[in-house]
Structures are given as structure tokens and as C-alpha cells.
Amino acid sequence: MIAGMADKPEMNGIVLTEAQKKSRRQRSIAIALALGVLVVLFFAVTIVKGPAVLVRPM
Fold it and tell me: 0.85 cut: is pTM over it?
């Protein structure tokens, strides 16, 4: 066992308030929605351009 490891008290870390938890959840949802919109946009552009996306001169 590493010396001193057993002597440390258990640490709980940072405890968030309910307002901070709500804010974090809203921010996470906003990021997820933005990412989803970006994925749909890339997919739509790929479908609209069709197979011409793969035809390029070397």
C-alpha cells in the first residue's frame, strides 16, 4: 500500500446546487440539439448533392 493513502479522508468533491444542476442539464440538451441539427444538415447536403460528391478528378 502507498504510504499516506489510508490517511486521507473521503472527499465528496464539488456539490452542485439544484439551480446549477438545472443549468447544466439545459446546456447539455442545447448542445445535443445543436449537434443533432448539424448531423441532419450534413446528411441533407449529402443527399442533395447525390453521388456527385464522390466524383472528383484526381
Answer: no
Does 4 reside within a domain? Answer: no
Tell me how many domains the chain contains: 1
Cell of 11: 472527499
Please write the tens of the pLDDT for every residue from 4-58: 555 666 678 999 999 999 999 999 999 999 999 999 999 998 888 877 766 777 7
Residue 46 lies in a domain: yes
Domain carrying residue 49:
26-58
Residue listed under C-alpha cell 441539427: 37
Q: Do residues 53 and 46 touch, judged by C-beta distance below 8 A?
A: yes
